[in-house]
Structures are given as C-alpha cells and as structure tokens.
Amino acid sequence: MSSNILLDVSKVTLTFGGVKALTDVSFSVNKGEVFSIIGPNGAGKTSMLNCISGRYQPNSGSVRFKDQEITRLKPDKRSVLGLGRTFQNLALFGHMSVLDNIMVGRHHLLKNNFATGPLYWFSGTQNEEIKHRAAVEEIIDFLEISHIRKKQAGTLSYGLRKRVELARAIALKPDLILLDEPMAGMNQEEKEDMARFILDLNEEWGMTVVMIEHDMGVVMGISNRVMVLDFGCKIAEGLPEEIMANDHVRKAYLGEEDEMLEQLEASL
C-alpha cells in the first residue's frame, strides 16, 4: 500500500440473504482527500460506509486503514485507530445537552477510568477533564454552535442536530471521517455552511473525508475524487469533471425521481 494511501478497500462483497448489496468493490483514499461516493438510491453507498466503519462485516474482500487490516475489527477499535463517522439517521442522545453529546465523542481518548474516578483530585482526572472540555469548546466555536451548547439535542432543528452530530464525530479526533449524507434535509444556507465546515476540516484540521451526498453541486464543488456505485457495483471513479462527463453515470441516474439527474446535468 502506498505511503500516501490512508484507506484501501479491496474486492469487498456484502450480501443480505440472497441479495448482493456490494459486489467486488475496490477503491483507495489518499491522505488529505475529500472523496465522495455517489449513486442512485439503493446503490450500496451506506453499506460501503458500514463496511469501513465496522458496522457490517463483508462476506469477502478486505478493508485496510493506515496500512493495517481492519476488516474484522470491531467499530470501537477502529475509532481508536482514528476512524470517525456520522450517520444518515441522527444518532444523538436527545435528552442530553449539546455539550454532553460532544463529550461522549471523547470517550476513547480518556485515560482515567472507574478505578481512578474516586481519586478525582489526585489521579489527574481533573486535569484530564479540563483538557477534554477545552477541546470540545474549540469544536463548538469552530462549528458556530456556542449559542446552543447547553440546550437539549432533541429540542434543536434538524440542521443544528446534524451539526451537533458532526461535532461529536470530530471530537474523536479522527484522521479519516465518514460522512453519511451530512446535508440531507438542510436548506440552501445550511448546506453552504456545512460545505464550508467540511472543507475547513479537510484543509485546516487535516482530516481526510469520505462522504456520501446527494447534492451534486456540493459533491462536484468540494470533492477531489468521486466514485459512483450502481446496484452495488462500482461503475466509475475519477475527478469530478470526469464523472460529470461519464455516460455510464448519466445512465445510472435515468429513471430517478429525485433531483439527482437534474443536478448532474446542471453541473455539466
């Protein structure tokens, strides 16, 4: 594996019963990239993210991260290695504050545990908590959500909850962050803000990004490379301008009832 490759997926196949969600899909992601995965509904995009994050284990093929085989590794072990993700369906703790939701994302970075907890003033636990809270406050400032830091996550608008979930994923300090439709359900202004945050994470925070997104304008505007899935198979991979001009990609979107084909055509 090249020293510049952070993630390498090789011939991954995933089946549910007799249905193939993914068939021999291979690709790699370089350090520092924004790599987008697109395709019609049901193409296998989220299944691929689940194979990378450890939520699913493929029937065959391999996933390597930082030149380490992680195909059978549990999700929490992948987090420790520097893999973070958000979900298509929000997975926040609605009864907890924004601040506490983000603090949950720091859990695997904690050195102290239940045994040292009672020695709060003597074990370094107090200093550690101060350090982690400072890191969380930095994330809150970065994502411009300081005005909601004490509010319960379940009371927020959908767009703000998506931002809080991104904050929790960032709190893991990942080298690679997986974003599953980070702009779904957002208005245009919210999408523009989220696109800016993703670019800043990539360029200023040094995070490599693998993103599933249906908004073709965003995908083509911020991605270094794009991969297209259709019925669980890879049909194209390349620079945004190459994908926009690819006949196989355009055919894959024919028949879609949503705006994806129109957005793709508008990008040409």
From TrEMBL:
<dbReference type="InterPro" id="IPR027417">
    <property type="entry name" value="P-loop_NTPase"/>
</dbReference>
<dbReference type="GO" id="GO:0016887">
    <property type="term" value="F:ATP hydrolysis activity"/>
</dbReference>
<keyword id="KW-0067">ATP-binding</keyword>
<dbReference type="InterPro" id="IPR032823">
    <property type="entry name" value="BCA_ABC_TP_C"/>
</dbReference>
<dbReference type="Pfam" id="PF00005">
    <property type="entry name" value="ABC_tran"/>
</dbReference>
<protein>
    <submittedName>
        <fullName>Lipopolysaccharide export system ATP-binding protein LptB</fullName>
        <ecNumber>3.6.3.-</ecNumber>
    </submittedName>
</protein>
<keyword id="KW-0813">Transport</keyword>
<dbReference type="InterPro" id="IPR051120">
    <property type="entry name" value="ABC_AA/LPS_Transport"/>
</dbReference>
<dbReference type="GO" id="GO:0005524">
    <property type="term" value="F:ATP binding"/>
</dbReference>
<dbReference type="InterPro" id="IPR003593">
    <property type="entry name" value="AAA+_ATPase"/>
</dbReference>
<keyword id="KW-0378">Hydrolase</keyword>
<dbReference type="InterPro" id="IPR003439">
    <property type="entry name" value="ABC_transporter-like_ATP-bd"/>
</dbReference>
<keyword id="KW-0547">Nucleotide-binding</keyword>
<feature type="domain" description="ABC transporter">
    <location>
        <begin position="7"/>
        <end position="256"/>
    </location>
</feature>
<dbReference type="Pfam" id="PF12399">
    <property type="entry name" value="BCA_ABC_TP_C"/>
</dbReference>
<dbReference type="GO" id="GO:0005886">
    <property type="term" value="C:plasma membrane"/>
</dbReference>
